[in-house]
Write a structure and sequence with these properties.
Layout: H1 2-7, H2 9-28, H3 30-59, H4 62-80, H5 82-110, H6 118-137, H7 139-179
Helix pairs in contact: 2-3, 2-7, 3-4, 3-5, 3-7, 4-5, 5-6, 5-7, 6-7
């Protein structure tokens, strides 16, 4: 397996460079990156929905057909109203942060006699709630912030893939010289 990876080191290099490019675009033009991700998700939902309908019809399982129809509808809605999809996703993240923070605080209070430093857990739960509230109050800033976070991840991941690619290239050179 390592030989195959080493022979195709350039594939990892291209993936890494693409991730870095996406991360840079996410910082420089977050609106473009958000639109791209929303449309990519819409395409995925649509295609997945088609496969789900086919699987449901072939297996004669109505729930899969319904799930597939929902996926197709989600994909179509995404392409017709991409802005609504982006805002909806942001509100889902905000809701998750608020509920997750409240549950974290509840767990910390409940376990306060068994866990030391529960105040840190409570504080982190409060931070999650604050994040959710800020996202709901300023969704446009929240969307850009989420995009920047994804961009930072993409850049870091891309750099790691580029490093790995060059290490595999060096490994490929050592493997080639041994067989010669």
């Amino acid at each position: 397996m390592i030989r195959t990876l080493a022979e195709h080191w350039w594939v990892l290099l291209l993936r890494g460079l693409a991730a870095i490019l996406f991360g840079v675009v996410a910082y420089a033009r977050p609106g473009v990156a958000i639109a791209f991700l929303v449309l990519l998700w819409g395409a995925y939902a649509f295609i997945d929905g088609i496969f789900e309908v086919v699987a449901g019809v072939r297996s004669k399982y109505g729930a899969l057909v319904l799930l597939g129809v929902l996926g197709i509808a989600a994909g179509v809605i995404t392409f017709l109203w991409p802005g609504v999809t982006a805002v909806t996703l942001l509100y889902i993240i905000a809701f998750w942060a608020i509920v997750g923070g409240a549950l974290q605080i509840a767990a910390a209070v409940r376990l306060r006699k068994e866990v030391q430093g529960e105040w840190l857990w409570i504080l982190s739960g409060a931070c999650m709630i604050l994040l959710g509230m800020l996202l709901m109050r300023h969704p446009e800033a929240g969307a850009v912030s989420v995009m920047w976070l994804i961009g930072a991840f993409a850049i870091a991941w891309g750099i790691l893939l580029v490093i790995l690619a060059f290490r595999l290239k060096g490994h490929h050179g050592r493997l080639s010289s041994r067989t010669a």
